[in-house]
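Dear colleagues,

As part of the handover before I leave the project, I'm documenting each prediction I ran so the next person doesn't have to rerun anything. This entry is a single chain, and its sequence is reproduced below.
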Amino acid sequence: MSSLILNKSARIKIRLFQGFNSLKHLKHVHAALLRLGLDEDSYLLNKVLRFSFNFGNTNYSHRIFHQTKEPNIFLFNTMIHGLVLNDSFPESIEIYHSMRKEGLSPDSFTFPFLLKACARLLDSKLGIKLHGLVVKAGCESDAFVNTSLVSLYGKCGFIDNAFKVFDDIPEKNVAAWTAIISGYIGVGKCREAIDMFRRLLDMGLRPDSFSLVRVLAACTRIGDLRSGEWIDDYITKIGMVRNVFVATSLVDFYVKCGNMERACSVFDGMLEKDIVSWSSMIQGYASNGLPKEALDLFFKMLNEGFRPDCYAMVGVLCACARLGALELGNWASNLMDRNEFLGNPVLGTALIDMYAKCGRMDSAWEVFRGMRKKDIVVWNAAISGLAMSGHVKAAFGLFGQMEKSGIEPDGNTFVGLLCACTHAGLVDEGRQYFKSMERVFTLTPEIEHYGCMVDLLGRAGFLDEAHQLVKSMPMEANAIVWGALLGGCRLHRDTQLVEVVLKQLIALEPSNSGNYVLLSNIYSASHKWEDAAKIRSIMSERGIKKVPGYSWIEVDGVVHEFLVGDTSHPLSEKIYAKLGELVTDLKASGYVPTTDYVLFDIEEEEKEHFIGCHSEKLAIAFGLISTAPNDKIRVVKNLRVCGDCHEAIKHISRFTGREIIVRDNNRFHCFNDGSCSCKDYW
């Protein structure tokens, strides 16, 4: 008779848990247990509890658990396990404390998940206590427990303790190796992490996808291209390149090391591409100076049916900012709800930056004001945008608001402020901000701040002071700092100091053609023909080619690219006809082309003929024939606008009645009615 009852009970248990797939169904099962008087059956309750976590409803799980009169260790473990899997870490620790109050001790099933909760909460105090209990419970040889201890100590920054536990594990599995590798990465010891991965392979173990992703992250962080390529070869050898997570990590590695060719090769070979891999490539092209490729890939992604995520959108907006593609940036941003931008500092910053770099500071300001969460990066983007656009007083005022809001400025804040001073020639204000970094805000000036100060002083004509600042810097001056001094020499025609500066720049940037060309021009102007010929010969021997000047203009959402003497555009004939009209009008307005500027300009457009068809002039001519009479013309150039073009565009803005905005690699130039917003100071 008793066996019949048991069989009936077993049949009920099996029937109850067959084929349900919703929380509603689970509640029906729970109700059936209550009706049948099986609500204290620990096996059945454990099943109900486990299934409740599968539906992500921890509130219902709590209700089931707390209605149990005498929960045993299995129910406590299931509760802790489920809460940890649902990222409810504080609640899992509360359940543990309740378990201890009931007089129950943790076992080998309790420790791994509880230690994971401590690791995620960085609760090293409780973790250390649990380690003591692990030893008392005789679980110190359990592989899962030890791996959890390694992970805990690693995430809490106690890497020596992590290694000690790891070293004592008699048979180390891949999970344990991955835990110690992750621990080293967490404390910034990426070289040690890579070495541990090599040891893993030497032990004859086959890494899983997670360990490969982690070691690639270590290579990425320190830019170790050689180790990353070796790991890439290994991944290909074992066939793991087909794993989407591993392949995406490889793409990210090559992108951040600046090797877009290898990144593209891995990406193209992926059988399955997720939004993360698309986003990584788009951001990679944008951040590695390939904005057009970033936009092409973005459209390809959309055609594949993917909706852009935060990272893809940031890449697209960065590309639009680089190209000055305002219409395209507006269109792309409309693919996401505006609230996503206003609620996400990363997205909001990218949108502010895009508007600012496309000359629409009013739109950038509107986004800034609407941001629900303004972190230091958002404030910095707005300050830099105002500075870049020539709204210097507004940038200073916003800095004051930032201080009142309790936001501590960082180094980037002062880069923005010093750039504002540079654009406006505010030397005294710049000196004050530079000094206040250490005196008021305890921030040590870094090399970019010295570069800003050298730029500010040099442009204002304080070339000796700027040179002295370079020589007194606590670190070696880099190409950016010497380049800033070069800008001052160029502006004030100091041919003596410029020779010293250019020699430094050539030593620091042996592949930068502009420095050779400029030094050769200086020697030629000083009749040092042999020295000029020597520089040209060095360029030829080293295979160094001059960097051509590119300009971009967006019309009806399409970005058009021009370079000096370009005839490849479909409307080339009409563009040159318009350029001819402009030359006639320019001469009538009193403008005379001059090659005097060539001495201090670095493009290959060194004759009057070429000066007449610089890339920015071609872009403007195209803009004049392709847009409505009242439309603003926006052009972006990859190099500094030469003096001759600057003078010509001022005249063009007057007799065409057009506002022409040109952003070069230095700043914005807003030409209107014969004058420029930079006041000929750039």
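The mean pLDDT is 87. The two ends are 100 Å apart (CA to CA).

All the best with the project,
I.
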